[in-house]
Structures are given as C-alpha cells and as structure tokens.
Design goal:
By secondary structure, the chain is mainly α. Helix content is about 85%, strand content about 0%.
Length: about 80
C-alpha cells in the first residue's frame, strides 16, 4: 500500500472514531435538552436527536468492525 492510501486509511478511521465521539455529545445534549425542556415539542426534538445518535453510533461501530476484519484498520 502506498503512502497516500495509508494516510487515507488512517484519516478515514480517525473520522469514524470522531463520529462515535460526536454521538456521545449528541446523547449528552439530548439528555440535557430533555431535562431542561419547557414543552412537549422540545421533547420530540431531543428524542429524535437521541434516536439518531444511537443509529449513527451503530453504523459507525459496524464500519469500524468491517475495517478491522478486512485489514483496513490502522493498528496505531
């Protein structure tokens, strides 16, 4: 694998990890927003944010596993 492909693989895997981190922030915001909300429509918004965070995290974790299984994961 040439240098460019290696750098691309590292960057892509780093972006997957950043996506998982983002979902943690989304979940924290959903909890905070739900706790502080003043009406039901806000509750719907934060519920959707929570649901999307779980879905996104699952997709990102699955993609990480695929990369590991196929040797596309950076071992650093």
């Amino acid at each position: 694998m040439d240098q460019r492909n290696t750098e691309s693989k590292i960057a892509h895997n780093h972006n997957l990890l950043k996506t998982i981190k983002l979902t943690q922030e989304m979940l924290a915001l959903a909890d905070e927003g739900d706790r502080d909300r003043i009406d039901e429509s806000c509750g719907i918004l934060y519920g959707l944010l929570r649901d999307m965070a779980y879905q996104l995290r699952k997709y990102a974790e699955d993609e990480c596993e695929k990369h590991k299984e196929t040797g596309k994961w950076d071992k650093q």
